[in-house]
Amino acid sequence: MIVPGRMQALLPFVYARWADRVHRIQVHQSHVTNVVEPLYTVDGQRTGYMRLHYGANRADLHLYHLIIDSMNRTERAAQLILSAMEMEPPTPSFNT
């Protein structure tokens, strides 16, 4: 877990499919000629941030409580996260 000892923290991972990300750049940043470059840049920055500050690989999906495909609908993804935060946390079970 990225935040040790903080079970009250919900760790979501919100992503969008590659084609959706490319489409979003094409629509919102029409002046960009190479739409792939900014995506790789942002991904690299996010990966570096997680490694530097948490010593974690952000692609390790076992770190997260919730994984959401936003489908470029960030408001809906935020609503899902807020709904998950209102849920009663599960009781940990341990296999012995």
Can you tell me about this structure?
The protein is mainly alpha-helical and 96 residues long. It is built from three helices and two strands, in the order βααβα. It has helices at residues 18-28, 36-54, 74-86; strands spanning 12-15, 66-69.
Short description:
By secondary structure, this protein is mainly alpha-helical.
Order of helices and strands: EHHEH
**Would you tell me the overall average pLDDT?**
85
Q: In DSSP terms, counting alpha (H) and pi (I) runs of 4 or more, how many helices?
A: 3
Number of separate domains:
1
Shape: globular
The count of DSSP E runs of length 2 or more, i.e. the number of strands, is 2
Indicate the low-confidence ranges by residue numbers. none
Quickly give the structural class.
Answer: mainly alpha
Radius of gyration: 16 Å
Oligomeric state of the chains in view: single chain
Characterize the largest beta sheet: strand count, sense, and whether it forms a barrel: 2 strands, parallel
Strand percentage: 5-15%
In whole angstroms, the N-to-C terminal distance is 21 Å
Helix content: 40-55%
**Order of strands across the biggest sheet?**
1-2
